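Slide 14.
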Amino acid sequence: MPERRDPAAMPAPLRRDVGLLGRLLGRVLEESGGPALLEAVERLRRATIALRGARASDREAARAEVVELVAGFDLDRAELVARAFTVYFQLVNLAEEQHRVRTLRERSRGGGPVRESFEAAVQEVRAAAGDAGLAALLDRLEVMPVLTAHPTEARRRAVVDALLRIGGLLARLDDPRLSAAEEADSHRRLLEEITALWRTEQLRRERPTPLDEVRTVAAVFDATVFQLVPDVYRSLERALVGDAAGTRQPPFRPYLRWGSWVGGDRDGNPNVTAATTTAAVSVQADHVLRGLEAAARRIGRSLTVSAASTPPTPELLASLAGDEAAFPGPAAAIRRRSPEEPHRRKLLLVAEKLAATRACLVGEATPSTRGPGLSPPEPRGGYRDAAELLADLRLLQGSLAAAGAGRLAYGELQRLAWQAETFGFHLASLEVRQHASVHAQALAELAPDAVGDAAALDRLATDGWPTSSHARGAVAAEALATLRAMAELQGRFGADACRRYVVSFSRSAADLAAVRALARLAVPDGLVLDVVPLFESRADLEAAPAVLDEYVALPGVAAWLEDRGRRLEVMLGYSDSAKDAGFLAANLALYRAQGALAAWAGVHGVDLTLFHGRGGALGRGGGPAGRAVRGQAPGSVAGRFKVTEQGEVIFARYGNPAIGHRHLEQVTNAVLGASTPGALAALRAAEARFLPAAGRMAAASEAAWRDLVEGDGFAEFFARVTPIRELGLLQLGSRPARRGGSGGGDLAGLRAIPWVFAWSQNRCNLPGWYGLGTGLATVAGEPGGTATLQAMHREWPFFRSLIENAEMSLAKADPLVSEPYLRLGGRPDLVTAIREEFRRTRALVLEVTAADRLLGHRPVLRRAVDLRNPYVDALSFLQVRFLAELREEGGGDAGRMADLVLLTVNGVAAGLQNTG
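Slide 15: predicted structure.
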């Protein structure tokens, strides 16, 4: 009888990789710092493992041993030990990523649909709605990831690149065809790359500029996303038509639409200007046009079918003649090599036209992908837009299909068509974001009487401004310059390149009408403009339908809405609502806002898209995106899902193609599944049964949250018990940690990212669970309350997702380690409140999930947390020691101690796998 494998046990391949990387790192440490360094690291590692395994009665003694070890390190030794644990985490993360890819491949070969896959989604929707319902839903389907430069990626780009190289070598070791010599060489190269990683500076010394961030995101598109998108489409096609995939026109339209805030988000970031926004789209266009050109050349070189075997259509020959006339030099060279291959000549001239397009739109900044013997691209004769490129590709496909070469028409050529349809000539639609108060300041400089008057602003937007109007101040000048930049970008790259304008802290119709009025002054001839309200605080979320009522009633907006096919986008902010009302109350407020807005859209005949401003961390709305989609309010998905993805989340989801594919597959599965009639009916039934109890819990939870964070001295306590001051020195991104004008002593102006990041560093994870226990206790104390909570967890996807996210936050928190941090605050009353709420929340979450330990029903996650905890502990004890010394002394070594704290911040972030 085969032995049953414990799902919580580390799989043998993962154990092998972790062991190999750990041994190689140990060898690097010994070679670099001698046996004494390796021994110091090993002693601390053994002590923290012993602390984790100690019985309750022995725990204080075990902790005292760790503290004594850490206290014995001088600054030089402490820096090296902290760096060793940081690099170790980076390597363990790689090993786990590699094992996840390995597992995905094994599951795909297992037979039958994989859970949360395209095949499972197609089966689910067909069973619920039939073929016609599936086709209708696919026609409506849109998934829109929006990449942002929110400062949550703690690693330098040089570190990320080194890890990518190590990951490639680690993956190579899975190849069973490797000879002994090749395997030995892979080990040698791993040792070389780990040595380079060890010797690479972990901390950024300069804050990146917005354009640095643009280039970083563009590099992600180059490395994975550009190729990943057609792979995703092909997988969906295979789920729909099986072996016929790649032989005929796909039965769905491309549904992925990428957006970006990088270079467009100026809310609280004075470094983002109109010039930045213009340059950002130019960088994006350069990357995508090079990608399209390279793909066209690669496919063209392999499209060697002859005119005799595959006769071209007259339409193709006519188009080819026009291209050869427009590009006589390249055409002659191509014809010499391929005189009887018209399809090949046509596609290679498509590549020439793309090169000319790039030269015209963004300039010839670096060498193109053109082959040898061809002159520089001609400046004329390129494409006006991506639609013209698609027309050429469709012409090629039609000619090949007419000649019986369907596989050539809808194979690699279809991948190129999908890339052109998805990315256009702009790569990702750049979205502008600005705070509503900035527009009010701009209007105060231009038309003071119209400030706050939605009707007056709508008249300015519709009828135009007096001819004497012009910018009289810096705020107005920059606001108008931004809108003119949007118009310029639309003229160069098409309307979709930059059409959305997100208004942070939208609280009235006037906040939205203000942007339309400013746009009319900036661009009198007209700007394609979608103003997107962003509702963030709990009060703003509750007021959203009333604000939209007033907004769409404005005559100019009503006319615009008709012109847009009654499509409207509304953004919901997860970060500030959680900081405002606490974890449970904010999540319920967001859920209610989703439902209220979906109902509002139904009454007004509006085709609504909700844009979810989810952070990477659980305290800012993070968590698995697929489960989050299933947990949305009834009717709020309706085939569309738009969400921000930021910082470390971008690299975690798209750094590896297989993981990126799985992420997009899970999201697509969830969007399709959540949009079926059966799913909607089940959600409505669960909501009707459980929403009143959730409301009672949220009220109690919010009261507990506000009692804590609004109490006297809490801001000072927070500043002392977390490395929030030091985080300001960590050069994460171009955006300041606080919105402009806010001082350093209050919490109101502090952005949600550093707020969450700081609490994760001291191992409290407070924003991801505080108040939940008080809320759960409200219902648990009622007759049959525990059974009600367990039924909510079982039957209501919203509540299940919420509890799972809280459970992860609790699992990554640790009272044993956080205690020395909290003591730095000098407020035993607050420490007691936090400690008691943690115990209450943990106990009730275990009761709700009917588990004996946190993550008890998710053994793979539990294993990952258990593996990391002792090593994170080592960094945490180092961090709190030097944080305390900085708080108390400073002195001549203050700069080095601050750097050491920042190094441990990087390491803890890598160990916990989240920042903000």
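Speaker note: The longest strand covers residues 142-148.
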